[in-house]
Amino acid sequence: MATLQKPTVLVLGASGQIGRFVVQQLDQTPEEVQVRVAARTPERCLALQQEGRDAVLLDLDQPNTFAAALRGVDRVFLLTGYTVAMLVQSKTLVDAAKKARVQHIVHLGVFGHWDCTDPHIAWHQLVETYIEASGIPWTHLHPNMFMEQIPRFMKIRNDRFRVFWGRDRMGWVASRDVGAAAATVLREGPTKHSGQNYWLSVQVAGGDQLAAIFSEVLGRSIRCEYEKPEDFASVMALTDDYRVEPWYAAGAMEFLQQFFDGRMSDFGVVRDDTPYLMSKPATTLKQWAMENRTFLEG
Ligand SMILES: NC(=O)c1ccc[n+]([C@@H]2O[C@H](COP(=O)([O-])OP(=O)(O)OC[C@H]3O[C@@H](n4cnc5c(N)ncnc54)[C@H](OP(=O)(O)O)[C@@H]3O)[C@@H](O)[C@H]2O)c1
User: Fold this and answer.
1) Ligand 1: does its nearest atom lie under 6 Å from the Cβ of 125?
2) Contacts with 90 (C-beta within 8 Å, 6 or more apart), sequence order
3) Domain 8-204+264-296 adopts which CATH fold?
4) Fewer Cβ close by (within 10 Å): the C or N end of the chain?
5) Nearest CA to ligand 1 atom 23
6) Which tens digit of pLDDT belongs to each residue from 167-204?
7) What is the mean pLDDT of residues 115-130?
8) Is ligand 1 within 6 A of the CB of residue 13?
9) 149 CB less than 6 Å from ligand 1?
10) Distance 239 CA to ligand 1 centre (A)
11) Which of the two residues, 243 and 153, has the higher pLDDT score?
12) pLDDT of 213-245, one tens digit each?
């Protein structure tokens, strides 16, 4: 009698803020899937192997690393970084996945309406269209703004923080929940999730609502200052852990401008598929702020 093999899941971006949670979640059910972690450099790959992980070298900018990394892989978590290179990286990776007979691509995209003109969202939509055209069963994840952007760009100083998109409410999701949702899809596979778009926007809050949450969590009055979108350029330039290329930086500025003038107001909605995928309610902004209170200030 033939034995059923566990599917092998290749996770890209495993060292980043979403990928680490995907791996963490998949690791909890070793009987269901074999987790293979992609590492961008040989040094990182070796370090992971020495920890006992199934790790492979895969540099998205080096397509000659794809074939060996994809050998024997059934499902791929496709995550690209904050770069326009995602277009070429994803196109070449999908081509290689097709040759490797991959059975499911789970793509981490963005929240956005189909005819959105923001560059970064348009790039993701082109990637999704290419994945769909490949014939490989797919699932697209559409997270809204990660809550982890709060300590990165909206640190509280002197009891104030700044927002750069006007007074409208933004949609939010915790990275941990994005990772958990992705892990469920990868674990359960294409039979259940092929052809699905999942929307991950669990709560909406603008400056005033965030100020109320931060005040409650920190136990004192915190105020929001409303800045213009163009003022965000200097914040991005000064944020050490967020060095992005000019193309991406311009896209971020465009996003804020479009949100500010109302073209992207549909980002400020709740559309939450996470409970269906995680079997529990998503993390709220208040819960997240309580867990991360030490990172809110600085
Ligand atoms: N920020 C938000 O609010 C938000 C909202 C919705 C969607 N997104 C989407 O989330 C994605 C980014 O996810 P994230 O925040 O988890 O990213 P991240 O923390 O910056 O991590 C990026 C990961 O990709 C890896 N990587 C980068 N370049 C690579 C290459 N050339 N070859 C192989 N691996 C490479 C990095 O590896 P190293 O450690 O080796 O660099 C790292 O593991 C983007 O596609 C973005 O559009 C973001």
Assistant:
1) no
2) 78, 80, 107, 127, 130, 131
3) Rossmann fold (3.40.50)
4) N
5) 13
6) 999 999 999 999 999 999 999 999 999 999 999 999 99
7) 96
8) yes
9) yes
10) 16
11) 153
12) 999 999 999 999 999 999 998 888 777 666 788
CB-ligand 1 contact for 63 (6 Å cutoff): no
Q: Does ligand 1 lie within 6 Å of residue 19's CB atom?
A: yes
| 47-96 residue pLDDT tens | 999 999 999 999 999 999 999 999 999 999 999 999 999 999 999 999 99
Which amino acid is residue 198, in one-letter code? Answer: Y
Question: Closest residue (by CA) to atom 39 of ligand 1?
Answer: 15
**Residue 227 Cβ < 6 Å to ligand 1:** no
HEC string of the chain?
A: CCCCCCCEEEECCCCCCCHHHHHHHHCCCCCCCEEEEEECCHHHHHHHHHCCCEEEECCCCCHHHHHHHHCCCCEEEECCCCCCCHHHHHHHHHHHHHHCCCCEEEEECCCCCCCCCCHHHHHHHHHHHHHHHHCCCEEEEEECEECCHHHHHCCEECCEEEECCCCCCEEEECHHHHHHHHHHHHHHCHHHHCCEEEEEECEEECHHHHHHHHHHHHCCCCEEEECCHHHHHHHHHHCCCCCCCHHHHHHHHHHHHHHHCCCCHHHCCCEECHHHHHCCCCCCHHHHHHHCHHHHEC
Which residue lies with its CA nearest to atom 5 of ligand 1? 145
Q: What percent of the chain has pLDDT over 70?
A: 98
Q: Report the nearest-CA residue for atom 21 of ligand 1.
A: 16
Query: Is the pLDDT confidence value at 159 over 70?
Result: yes
Cα 137 to averaged position of ligand 1 atoms, centre (Å): 22
Q: Is the CB of 65 under 6 A from ligand 1?
A: no
* 25 vs 201: CA distance, rounded Å: 20
Q: What is the pLDDT of residue 239?
A: 73
137 in contact with ligand 1, CB cutoff 6 A: no
